[in-house]
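User: Just a sanity check before I run the rest of the batch. Below are the C-alpha cells for the first item. I only need the designed sequence back.
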C-alpha cells in the first residue's frame, strides 16, 4: 500500500501484513468503518454492564484486525483478543466469522486455522485496503449474527 509500511513479522520477501487501522484512510476501509455502528456491544455475557465494559468501538476494532498476503489472492486474516467479546461463540458449533467471511462477495473460501487466525482465498487479486474492508465487514456481520443467535436485540 502506498505510504504504509508492511508490519510482517516474518520478514518473508513479497509478503505484506497491515493492521487495519493503518489502512483506515483508504476509501474502501473508510466506507466499511462508516457502515458499522460506532460501538459494537459485547455478546460475551448476559450482564448489560459486562456488555458495555467489553464493547468495541469501530476505531478500536480496526486496531485489532490484521490482513496479510503474498499474492493478493490468498490472505491471512487475524484479530486480537478483544474481538472475541463481540463475535466468539465459545462452545457453539457454528463459526460465525468463517461463515460471514465466506458470505463476502470477494471471498471464494475461508477457514479458521487457530482461534484468532483465518485463511481466505479471494475471487480476484485484491489490494490490502480492499481485503481489510472485506474483513471488517465480515466481523460486523458475524457480530450481528452472533447476537441474533443469542436472542440479543442490538440497538443498531
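Assistant: Here's the designed sequence for the first item:
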Amino acid at each position: 500500500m502506498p505510504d504504509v509500511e508492511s508490519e510482517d513479522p516474518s520478514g518473508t520477501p513479497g509478503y505484506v501484513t497491515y493492521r487495519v487501522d493503518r489502512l483506515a484512510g483508504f476509501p474502501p476501509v473508510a466506507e466499511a468503518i462508516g457502515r458499522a455502528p460506532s460501538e459494537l456491544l459485547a455478546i460475551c455475557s448476559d450482564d448489560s454492564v459486562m456488555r458495555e465494559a467489553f464493547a468495541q468501538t469501530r476505531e478500536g476494532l480496526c486496531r485489532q484486525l490484521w490482513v496479510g498476503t503474498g499474492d493478493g489472492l490468498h490472505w491471512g486474516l487475524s484479530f486480537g483478543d478483544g474481538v472475541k467479546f463481540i463475535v466468539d461463540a465459545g462452545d457453539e458449533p457454528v463459526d460465525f466469522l468463517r461463515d460471514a467471511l465466506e458470505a463476502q462477495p470477494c471471498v471464494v473460501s475461508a477457514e479458521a486455522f487457530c482461534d484468532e487466525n483465518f485463511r481466505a482465498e479471494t475471487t480476484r487479486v485484491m489490494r490490502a485496503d480492499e481485503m481489510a474492508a472485506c474483513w471488517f465487514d465480515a466481523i460486523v456481520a458475524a457480530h450481528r449474527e452472533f447476537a441474533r443467535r443469542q436472542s440479543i436485540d442490538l440497538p443498531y
